[in-house]
Specification:
Pectinesterase_inhib_dom; 6 helices; Pectinesterase inhibitor domain-containing protein; signal; enzyme inhibitor activity; 168 residues; Butyryl-CoA Dehydrogenase, subunit A, domain 3; Invertase/methylesterase_inhib; mainly alpha
């Protein structure tokens, strides 16, 4: 009898451990699924995921992405400032990056005020600014670090717009 009781206790302990592990893994999977679902709505999920990290709230995710986009735009603006003399396309990018920063700051302020329409207007303007920069390089057949940065900024801006549509 003692052997049978020991077997039943061990079986119960293993079953309880398995249940706890399944619960832990399923809750982590649900969290990862929420994050993945948020980014899966965007055009460039691989650019979205590192910026959004574990945020599942669309408003917070949009805010974080706008902040990251502002930081990346400032870096691109610094890069453009280094090379703008003598290159009209980079000069244009410098100007459009400056405009984009203004639009992104206003988009961030709009999200705090819960004014989604204004935020979308400013985000659309920023994406357009990045697009103007990219098109100038395409027209001239140039490829450089400023153009590469502008392409990434436009993609992240597009993701911002998509995330903003999820805000309720």
């Amino acid at each position: 009898m003692a052997g049978r009781d020991t077997f039943e206790l061990r079986f119960a302990a293993v079953a309880a451990s398995a249940a706890v592990l399944i619960f832990l893994f399923s809750s982590q999977a649900v969290e990862a699924s929420r994050m993945m679902n948020l980014c899966s709505h965007t055009a460039y999920p691989s650019l979205c995921q590192p910026l959004v990290k574990r945020v599942t709230n669309p408003r917070r995710a949009t805010h974080q992405t706008i902040q990251a986009l502002e930081a990346k735009t400032k870096l691109a603006l610094t890069e453009a400032a280094r090379y703008k003399s003598g290159n009209q396309e980079i000069t244009t990018c410098y100007e459009t990056f400056t405009d984009a920063l203004y639009n992104l700051a206003n988009a961030r302020k709009s999200i705090r005020k819960r004014n989604v329409m204004a935020m979308n207007t400013f985000l659309t303007a920023a994406v357009s600014d990045f697009g103007v920069c990219v098109e100038g390089f395409i027209d001239k057949g140039q490829v450089n670090t400023v153009q590469n940065a502008a392409v990434d900024l436009r993609k992240i801006g597009t993701n911002c717009l998509m995330l903003s549509t999820l805000i309720r």
